Amino acid sequence: xxxINGLKSLKSNQQECVATIxxxxxxxxxxxxxxxxxxxxANELKLPLTVISFEPLPAEYFMLxxxxxxxxxxxxxxxxxxxxxxxxxCLKFNSELASSPPVEFIKSILIDKLNVKYLAVGDxxxxxxxxxxxxxxxxxxxxxxxxxxxxxxxxVLDGERISSTRIREALSIADLKTANNLLGHKYQLNxxxxxxxxxxRTIGFPTLNMKVTNNIALKFGxxxxxxxxxxxxxxxxxxxxxxxxxxxxxxxxxxxxLFDFEKDVYGEYIDVxxxxxxxxxQKFESFEDLKLQIDIDANKAxxxxx
Length: 306
Known about the structure:
Blueprint: E1 2-5, E2 17-21, H1 29-45, E3 49-55, H2 58-62, H3 73-82, E4 87-92, H4 95-98, H5 102-113, E5 116-122, H6 135-144, E6 148-152, E7 156-157, E8 160-161, H7 164-172, H8 176-183, E9 188-192, E10 208-211, E11 221-230, E12 233-242, E13 253-258, E14 269-280, H9 287-305
Parallel strand pairs: 1-4, 2-3, 2-5, 3-4, 5-6
Antiparallel strand pairs: 7-8, 9-14, 10-13, 11-12, 11-14, 12-13
Helix pairs in contact: 5-6, 7-8
């Protein structure tokens, strides 16, 4: 998949394409249905499939307290690639884009820049200045300029609409079963193993450290985890997601201790799959108290993963 970072990265005379546009936070079963149908359409028309999204997400630009993220951008890119998308155009959401009149957005970006011949959008998609644009305008302006526009029906699971909101709510209480059912895959986070404070190794629990976006939806705490990506070998362990209050941490980190693993893997990218929630993150009076609790957490994780 080709990652296109903003309009300035687009070449002139773009090849015609089949496209969709939206937040795509989570890439849940509803999103997957849209993309599968679009992939069929792209194959039928012999055109590439382009997904258009934003960074930051519009809600993060407008709201003081926007919804949490199901996935950071890196995970979205990886999943779109796995779903067979040809191009991912990530538009920078700023004041210029926010104030763009809907008709101008359709003509200048979708038609002139991207040369979209077939566009599918969610039935609740809004865009342009003050969210004045919707499906009816897209269809009217698009088809007058050679772009077929269709909306997509809402997907339902267990009698309820599949939505990113439902997934965020499930993750916020560590209800991994519900989140996984709605996502259609196991919830996991991808990142590069970076150097940490190396305190864990002093108490016999070395960790693989990943920086995590501050607005992640998953509940802070300790989890039994599986780790993918280390020489294609599945590893198991226990992980803490949070700010590490015992050592007065500030930034969000995911610290994963793998069982029976001592290899140096700094700089490598891994996927941490969250299997089960063990306990909420808490502050301990001493590092020794923390060590005792980690022993308990590790034993619980081993039982869960056995």
